[in-house]
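2024-03-11 09:14:02 DEBUG pipeline.ingest accepted 1 chain
2024-03-11 09:14:02 DEBUG pipeline.ingest length=282
2024-03-11 09:14:03 DEBUG pipeline.predict start
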Amino acid sequence: MRIRKRILPSGWYPADEKRCLENFKKFEIMVKPSSINVDLKNVNSIIVPHAGWDFSGHLSYLSFLKAKEVAEKSNQKIDLIVYFGGHLKYSENTIVLNYDYCETPFGNLEVETNLINEYKKLFDSIDETSIFSDNTIEVNMPFIKHFFQSAKFIGLYPPLQEALSIAQFFINKVTNCLVVASSDLTHYGPNYGFTPSGTGEKAYKWACENDKILLNALEKLDYDSIELIVDKHQNSCSPNSLTTAIAYASFKGSKKGYILSYDSSYNIFPSASFVGYLSFIA
């Protein structure tokens, strides 16, 4: 049995179920999910950030919680979570989490290995190994297991050049599926070599406006524009995952997306370098 063990240190997210649940109580207070309503008959895609939970866990919590609420309200069955990680370049091969199970504090996620094998026959791909270390999928695995306990899981990093084909693959192969995209937004400041508006409060306000350009496209499910917007404005670290998930939602019949919440690490730790975060559903 191939089990993917935890790779990220405990600073990214808690190591045990009890502390995860304690964090969830804090997140509930932070995002006030009962005050957020969306007009969706079904949920097809969500977007979550991928920083450590201290910075963006509340937004991931909100996306998964609302996805579960919409599904339960409409009696929508979700058998599979397909999670698109980020940080791949345009033309790299897909990286696949090709295991039998993935470890989380809430128990192991069962991987849909049969569909992975079908995927690998159609798309050039390589398997994740211990050499490859990336936070964009693992940091949100506990939310998947907590909110969708019986669903199987596929985690992969899609190349941008195949985003639409990958979205169509899952449309063709799976009926009861929720797609998750992992992306942070504008990485501003000297740590990222990106300071078009200096530093301080004016820089933060500029970054928020920069993020809005992308958020407007996401709300419209304008998957064709995401690559161009990100290339011009540098407001996402993972346009590949966004494009794939938004295309999936559109192909599946979603008419619009909803910004559930927007935040920034600047509001938690106001420094010269900061990152924007998003909670989204479609």
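2024-03-11 09:14:41 DEBUG pipeline.report Residues 265 and 274 are 5 Å apart (CA to CA).
2024-03-11 09:14:41 DEBUG pipeline.predict end
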